[in-house]
Amino acid sequence: MQSTRDNAANEWFDGPLGARVVREETALAQVALDDVFGFELLQVGSWGPTRHLLGSARTQHATLLAPHRGPGVTLCAPMTSLPFASDSIDAILLPHTLELVQDPYAVLREAERVLVAEGCLMICGFNPFSGWGARRLFGRAFRRPAFPPQTRRMLSEIRLRDWMALLDFEVANVYGYLGPLPVTRRPRKLSDGSVRQPEYRARRALTAGAYLLKARKRVQTLTLVRPKRRTRQLVLVPAAERTANVGSNKQWPPETRS
Asked: Domains in the chain, ordered, with CATH?
């Protein structure tokens, strides 16, 4: 069953529409990873050709983790239970991973656990409010294979921002890519015959066919609160009347009767 799904996905990526997705995501990865440094970049989930998104990594190491063996997979492990210590990974890339799993929020929680403070989290996703989302709904209505292959759902940028806030991530940039309609588009060529690379700028992806969200893990700082010094409360009590004044209406010394 798994091999059948893999074959269907490979055929789609070899086709014109899948090739367009791979081409634009590869170019966008160069922009998103330009300021990501450190020791380890972890890609969770396999998507498209072998390690095409990790070619622009500027970290010392780049690891591809997936639940099943495949070309380019470095480590096999469940995506909801990563075999890494907490606060040990510098950057994590989720290329449409949340759209392929049954529990996407569990994957996000695990990514937050293993990321270091100020670590970078990058998420690719299709926009369900674009023509790509309409094409998926059309296929489901007529019981056709999932579009794109292997996807269980499409998550909007708005929902993803809500999850980021719950997990104490700060969204830095959102890049929109792909056109609003799932149509084939030939790459533009320059006069020398080379392919023109598209330019991507950080912007909201409400009208794009897909988006790449880039966030940072916040650092929770502890503020020392010094205990307040206890001060004695002065209680004003009326002064006691002198004994000499008690019974002042009586004569002193008392008269003695003979």
From this structure: 2-217 (3.40.50.150)
